[in-house]
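Late entry, evening session. Most of the bench is empty. Finally got around to the prediction I had been postponing all week. Sequence below, unchanged from the version circulated by S.P.
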Amino acid sequence: MRKKIFAVAMMLFTMVLGAAFCSAPLRAAEFSADINQRLQGRALTGRIFVKGGKYRVEQRDANGRRMFIIVDQKADLTIVLDPAEKRYMETPSTGMLSLMNDPFQSARYMETKFKKTLLGKEMISGYECTKFKLESDNKELMTVWKAKKLNFALKISLHDKKQSFVELKNIKEGPIDEARFRVPAGYNKQEDRAKKREREEAALPVITTSVKGEAPWARRIEKGGEIRVKVDPKKSVRFRFENLVKDESVFTIKAFRNGRPIKMDIKETYSLRHKGQREKPLLGLQNKADEIAIRVEKGKILAHIMNEQSAFAKDKIKTFFITTGLRKFTQGKFVDPKRQFRLIITSDSQDSTKSRIKVKFYKGDYKNKVDEVEAVLPNGQSKTWEYPAAKGIKTLEIAVAKGGGVKVRIEQPAPGKSLKSKRAPKIIRTASSKQGKKSVTKAVPQKQPGPRLSRKQARKIIKAINANDVAVVESELDKGMNINSMLYGGTLLMKAANLGTAEMVKMLISRGANLNYRTRRGDDALSVGMSNSRHWQQVVPILVEAGITVDENTPIWKIGFKTKKGKLLPEAKKMLEFLFAKGASPDSYTTQEKSTLIMFYAKKGWLDPLKFFLDHGADVNARTIKGQTALSMALTKPRRPEKPAQKKERQAVVELLRSRGAK
């Protein structure tokens, strides 16, 4: 319901950019007017009612569907009403969803962020208006005619190929009934998504006493709760902690050997100061710990404890834990296609008595699917899949449904060695036997990328995407074009995310576009959407809210590179915080050498973005393949001579890194 309301609201009001072009206090103007607009070549009409800092817009879309929006700027409140379903929803006017979908608030934001140039005076509908334009990087965004008497924009023109505009006609000044700005009787309130999620998150089970487990393991822990986890003393221990509350969370780590506490080469007490902040310490192999204790002194955290195998080990073994909570979670992994392969999944959910999983095996980079299986595992039960090297399995995708939690183990022996047999009682096998028996798990169909478009159709679609001509693309889809058709190396959704607008992306998602398709390089719609030079701020949240995978491999460096004069753009900071809250990692690699963003900033001597990433949990001691760290890069003499101010900032970078424990 909520997505439907906002999708329609976005389409209806994208061109009504008026009332909020003012940072000064609003006058108590009261009037009504007709709305005349052309949006992407389509004419739309409606009515608007203004009473001081409140306004109400009533319109119909091309299909005749009615939609109302009420905004109270002083109360920072936006109400979207759906008369057909007698429902309404409230959301902050300055929140991300409102900025994405309510052009009034977007306009206010744009005026404070972009260059404003006065163009003189002009009469519109009998009112003297101040005419000005807004531009960014020497590119004109829109021209506005604002009536001084009404403190309201009477006309706006966008500089697009369709010459889109909005203009108010038949303006009638006079008192407006306050009842227009209230929700009519009989409407049911829809719960705000953020508040609903906050309520549901608070209701998830947490550990408040002392419990025991075995790595890999993950649990939510609240104040007073403790987990004691058995780990392999012959391996390093990797932790991943995330703060689950708005306020500070404080917790301690202790390591044991043979039941006795030992000194660690990492600090004992950690503090996460805001929701979503993460820490990923590594307890080295030299500690030889066989048990770890995590205790929460304040707040609530999600703790992952995993053994990490040496990169020099001949047999490749990967173990990790997937926990879901309120959402389905999908994780992909690369394996060596020249080795035998065994996958073992064991259900161990904190939220349910069972876990529903789906696993896909591919020969290529998420292409040429070999098998697809689904299973529901009660807690404690395992399933195993085995494939010979001849199958050439290179990638696999593990999806765990909402409420599930699973331990995952991937085994690949060195060439020439065979997989050790597993005892049957605890494992249910689904792989084919040597006699060629079929798997007991039935494969289910998957949405695969569609056929490649013809040159003629490809040119037509790419032109429509660049021009945001949604009608043309919808027309081709109605004629039978596959929604997942390939277009110049990517799906329609990927091209729309990379080149098009939020409206185009929303339309394709609403019609069933595959969110999870990846190219051979591993790109998906989200990764290319981050490279959208004009619309990334609108496209990225839409893809994330639609359910596209966000995890530690999400290439957030594409947002992290959006800087100006050594500082992260404010829009980039907001987007990064949004992605971190959804599961992205501040330690995702930017190069094959495993360089992270804080290394890049340290090398440049940029303090602002470095502090931002450290504050959001970036690993200050992460190393490249060659052993370089952020501190070593900051201390490396730059190729070009630096100005005094740059030298001072570089010194501040070094001091910050050292204060955060850099080695």
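Two things to note before I forget:
The first helix runs from residue 2 to 13.
The first strand starts at residue 30 and ends at 39.
Will write this up properly tomorrow.
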